[in-house]
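Two folds, back to back.
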Amino acid sequence: MAGKRGDDMRDAGSFDEFYRSTSRRMLRYGYAVAGNYTEAQDLVQEAYARAWRQWGRMTAHPAPEAWLRLVVARLATDRRRRLRGWHAALTRSGPPEVVPPPSEDGVLLLDALRRLPAAQRQALALHYLFDMSVEEIARETEVPTGTVKSWLSRGRARLAALLPGVSDAELEANDVS
């Protein structure tokens, strides 16, 4: 096993030397091919990662830098194809619908919900968003129905305290206890 580790160190050293001697040229090449510096960095990084994974065979390659250039070019081509496909799909489907900003009430409710314990949030969400009964919530959360009733009651009370202008009566109007 010690021999294998020594080979890895030798390989790491030769890879480091290869990287140091080629990386600047490769980045310039990637930039020329991709037309975007950030994309070029990604392409070149991926190409070097692939070279490292195959470094044992790469050391015997007659032109490792040419191999690396080929990988960068192919990665750039693949990326352009994916982007063209994505652009075509977007053109067919049209732009996404404009999503309106959240309402002030929605923001306040979300902030209040975040202040509740997780179990109370879950019970309230299952009850009000999925219209689940106390019994259904108890089965899904694997707790007694009394626990679910407690979570709902305490959650409503805490929400009433946290939400200005909302009374306990309004929150309890939907109670199924």
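---
second:
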Amino acid sequence: MSESTTSKEKILKKVRSALIHKSNQEIGDVDNDSEIFASSDEPLEIQFAQNFSALNGKFVFCENETEFIESFDFIIKDNNWKNIFCLEPQIKELLKKGNINFSDIESNFLNTDIGLTLCECLIARTGSVMITSKQASGRRLPVYANFHMVIAYASQLVNNVKDGLKLIREKYNGQLPSMISTISGPSRTADIEKTLVQGAHGPKEIFVFLIDDTNNSQ
């Protein structure tokens, strides 16, 4: 018998013995509330911006909704982007204020280049955007357009995924949406000849416009 087989048998015997002769030691209550990761002294918006940017996301801070309109208008004109699609009533009102052309007609969906959506919350620790199927933009728009533009508010910042799920439970009175997902930067793959390709399974770029709603200036 080889040395490796002997070692394997020894381990298996110990496992069998442990299963037969169970320990009498009581296991204490599991602590599900304490934080696993060390907390940061940085404000949530700074944490999110750093972690989101590290994932190749594009972060734009706006002091108010007026500044969002100006920033968004500048970006689309600077890049000569067309075919903007939006289904969120709140964002559509902002675009109308800025005289920015967009479509919300289903027949134009397949020609979409820019998809504008809201989100449920922003996860600061991971730099992720949490979305659900309950949103007006649904399941398709966040993954279909070449460029995904997320409009979020400072009041939507949470520390971690657990906090985000708690927020969603409270928002929908415990009736969780059929789809809850987090977006952590543009999709990437190196499956083909180990060459990293960005946007292979979704948008090529993701922008987050974070609007400060902690003050009343608009």
